[in-house]
Amino acid sequence: MEQPLVILERQDRVALVTINRPEKLNALNTGVISALASLMEELNKDTYIRAIVLTGAGNKAFVAGADISEFSTFNAKEGYALAHQGQEQLFDRIALMDKPVIAAINGYALGGGLELAMACHFRYASTHAKMGLPEVTLGLIPGYGGTQRLPALVGSGLALEMMTSAQMIDADQAYAAGLVNKVVALDELVPAACAVGKKIAQNAPGAVAHALRAVRAGAGAQPGTPGYEVEKKAFSACFGTAEFTEGVGAFLAKRTPDF
Ligand code: COA
């Protein structure tokens, strides 16, 4: 029997959502994106649920990025549509939710995976987690809000270093930079995220929703503001270039790219 791409487990008023594609390190393909988007929509409307914890199946990855095999032949127009649809359908939807979504980063959070964690309201990580935006190794840039949310969270210096060097940071570095709020052992990660979710669930849900809205309004980078549009256009401009063909071709052929 085929496994569901997204698993929901209710722990009283906290919803635990697990992206379930461990054999591909939970890479975001269109199936995962649409299943996750529908579930988030449903949970946002569910008045019993007060907080959501989002994690990845297995002990290796939260999400290792957008599914590279799905966009390897895209041109600029298709690249723009990929970023636009993904931002609208999933990433902005999470960022605009009325209840906190907590990312429990249980391993690699790379590219679209880190962008997904950053669209959540805050993040906990396991000690072995690794985070990065390695898109330039593919001849691309982040397209799911990463150019906007990473500088807003850690400052432009570290964000630019991560985006241009493609180097990953570990959980302790992410904690020091304010990218994650807590670092715990892997087996304590989901319990710790659910525990804070349960604390949130004890508080006034309308007030919690207002707090989320107010913080969003004050934050420099919000969905719908010009930076996100600039990102989509710049992301789409990468498609069809020789760099893109080399970067993605090298990943799929399991060799080092030669730019
Ligand atoms: N898209 C599609 N498939 C992916 C993927 C992605 N972003 N990340 C991992 N996978 C797949 C691999 O192709 C492999 O599939 P296979 O077993 O059918 O060959 C499987 O997941 C396991 O990954 P593998 O590379 O063998 O694991 P590893 O431990 O050697 O390396 C990573 C782990 C995370 C370093 C490596 O998978 C990687 O670099 N992934 C891409 C990260 C990235 O560039 N993300 C941004 C995308 S925009």
List the helices and strands and how they pair.
Blueprint: E1 6-11, E2 14-19, H1 30-45, E3 51-56, E4 61-63, H2 68-71, H3 76-95, E5 101-105, E6 108-110, H4 112-119, E7 122-126, E8 130-132, H5 146-154, H6 156-165, E9 169-170, H7 171-177, E10 182-184, H8 186-201, H9 205-218, H10 226-238, H11 242-252
Parallel strand pairs: 2-3, 3-5, 4-6, 5-7, 6-8, 7-10
Antiparallel strand pairs: 1-2, 8-9
Helix pairs in contact: 1-3, 3-10, 4-5, 5-6
The chain binds coenzyme A.
Coenzyme A binds next to helix 2 and strand 6.
Brief digest:
The protein is α/β, with parallel strands linked by helices and 259 residues long. The chain contains 11 helices and 10 strands.
Rg of Cα set: 17 Å
What is the strand tally? 10
3D shape: globular
How many individual domains? 1
The CATH topology assignment is 2-enoyl-CoA Hydratase, Chain A, domain 1
Helix fraction, binned, reads 40-55%
Spatial order of strands in the largest sheet:
1-2-3-5-7-10
CATH superfamily: 2-enoyl-CoA Hydratase, Chain A, domain 1
Strand content: 15-25%
Distance between the termini: 43 Å
Q: Which structural class do you get from the secondary structure elements?
A: alpha/beta
Present as ligands are: coenzyme A
- Would you state the CATH class? Alpha Beta
Mean pLDDT across all amino acids: 94
Please give the count of helices.
Answer: 11
Q: Using the 3D structure, state the CATH architecture.
A: Alpha-Beta Complex
Contiguous uncertain segments of 5+ residues: none
Spell out the helices and strands N to C: EEHEEHHEEHEEHHEHEHHHH
**Biggest sheet details:** 6 strands, mixed
